[in-house]
Amino acid sequence: MELVDVHCHLESSYLYKNLDTVLRDAVDTGVKKLITSSITPEQWPVSLGLATRYEEVECALGVHPWYLDESFFSSLDLLGDEARKGAVAIGEIGLDIKVDFPALDQQVPFFEKQLAVARELNLPVIMHCRGAWQEILKSIKRVGMPEAGGLLHSFSGSPEIAEDFIPLGISFSMGGILTYRNSRKRKNLLKKIYPRHFLLETDSPDIPPVEVRTDPASPNVPANIIYNLRAAADILEKSAEEIARETTANAVRIFNLDMKRQG
């Protein structure tokens, strides 16, 4: 099977300092490509460097809503030039109404400016959203979506919310939350978005699958995507091989991946 982890953070300290092992384990598990997403402008050169150094790594550049700083806003003028150096997406960007800081009215200008860059370059966006579904839809209405579409990662919305985003060219990925198999809402959601609009992620080093949460000192790693795949297969009552094939095809289509570049 060939798998794509469409969202992880190899720039994080634990993964970065153990990168050769982390990537070897992922490849041994069947991961053909990983898309690592920056969260601040300081990480952009790190992300680009990883994509240059490792054939299995691609990168997305952006500013995460949790880590906004007003001093970063001027850096967004450089985002397009940096992304042209080899990013396959703009991300991780988005809106979050479940955090006290930064306030939503601070987040929106950052999100919309980055969305505009993605539109200019026609790169897909990788979006974070907690609770701000209508706010993101309003921003997309104001700015527009890139023709390449986008991804709502770690998606926790309902099937009805997904229906609002699918016509905009947006797909959905889920990671460790899939391994909690007893959610009727998640089962209904997967049936709604599979096969065309469903992808796999780990969001490592965050949100490990339930199978490996016995060791709180050990962060999530991209190799754990195999647990997310098996959980999706259980929930959808499909073979793991079929889901790997469909989700990988979706990742190749959305992010214009060259699968021959790895290996």
Give the structure's gist in a few sentences:
The chain has 263 residues and is an alpha/beta fold. The protein is built from ten helices and eight strands.
If you had to describe this structure to a student in words, what would you say it looks like?
By secondary structure, this protein is an alpha/beta fold. It has one domain: TIM Barrel. It is built from 10 helices and 8 strands. Strand 4, helix 5 and strand 5 (125-130) form a beta-alpha-beta unit. Helix 5 packs across helix 6 and helix 7 packs parallel to helix 8 (184-193). It is globular.
Shape: globular
Terminal residue distance = 14 Å
Oligomer: single chain
Element-by-element helix/strand order: EHHEHEHEHEHEHEHEHH
Element layout with pairings:
Elements: E1 3-8, H1 13-17, H2 19-29, E2 31-37, H3 44-53, E3 57-61, H4 79-83, E4 89-96, H5 104-121, E5 125-130, H6 133-143, E6 150-152, H7 159-165, E7 170-174, H8 184-193, E8 198-200, H9 225-236, H10 240-255
Parallel strand pairs: 1-2, 2-3, 3-4, 4-5, 5-6, 6-7, 7-8
Helix pairs in contact: 5-6, 7-8
Q: Keywords, please?
A:
single chain, 263 residues, alpha/beta, TIM Barrel, eight-stranded parallel β-sheet, 10 helices, 8 strands, 16% strand, globular
